[in-house]
Amino acid sequence: MNIIINNEFVFAEKVNLIKIENYLNNISSLDAKIIQKNQNGNEIFGTIKLKKPGKIRIEYSNINQDFDHLIVGNNGIIAIIDYNSNSEPLRYPISGTPLKYLSEKKINLNTDEIKVKLKEYSDYFDLEIKEINPTIGLGIILLKFQKNPIKILGWEIPINETQTTQILLDKTKINNTLDDNLFYISAEIMKYKNSRN
User: Is residue 83 one of the residues assigned to a domain?
Assistant: First the structure.
């Protein structure tokens, strides 16, 4: 009896993983407002725009609703621009961050490069994707989905053993047209440098 229950559970999990994979792979763009929370409950507000493959733009506003942080990704690179700092923008390969699982054109959840863990609740799923050999950080992202109909609600990215960043999506628009000009890193860095002068 236990074997049958276990097999049914494994089968259900595989079916749900296929549904999630198909859902993610049918997203060509995403445009939403975001609420970012840390482990202390502090909140930052902003927007996210994503266009596959590999284009991402996350804008953050401060308490006065002034735009002050930007993450922009294109051509395999993510740049992090802090308008409150005089430091040179940081750059990372998208492939080394968990954000690649949102921005890749086709996501494969059945590969030896990752471990996936699906937790099912009454009306939503949690999907943990963990890289076997992460290049930056812990290489973990926890995607959250509404169950029926399936819809992405947000994600969590652990920074270390005690810190995590949580993103909640609001007013999400899927597969709307997004202008490529939103994702040009060099243009955004030039705007940042001009603002410093």
Answer: yes
Mean pLDDT by 10 residues, the chain (197 residues): 39 73 95 88 89 94 70 92 85 86 90 90 90 86 92 91 89 96 92 80
Q: How far apart are CA 42 and CA 35, in angstroms?
A: 10
pTM: 0.85
How far, in Å, CA of 69 to CA of 64, rounded?
Answer: 13
- What's residue 58's pLDDT? 94
Q: How far apart are CA 64 and CA 164, in angstroms?
A: 25
Rounded to 10 degrees, the C-alpha dihedral 133/73/172/63 comes to 100
The answer to the question of residue 40 being in a domain is yes
CATH of the domain at 91: 2.50.20.10
Residue whose token pair is 């595989």: 14
At 190, which helix (H) or strand (E)? helix 185-196
Residue 139 belongs to domain spanning: 2-191
Domain membership of residue 197 (yes or no) is no
Tell me whether residue 196 is in a domain.
no
Residue 4 pLDDT: 37
Q: Which of 39, 117, 103, 41 is nearest to 72 (CA)?
A: 103
Type of residue numbered 192: Y
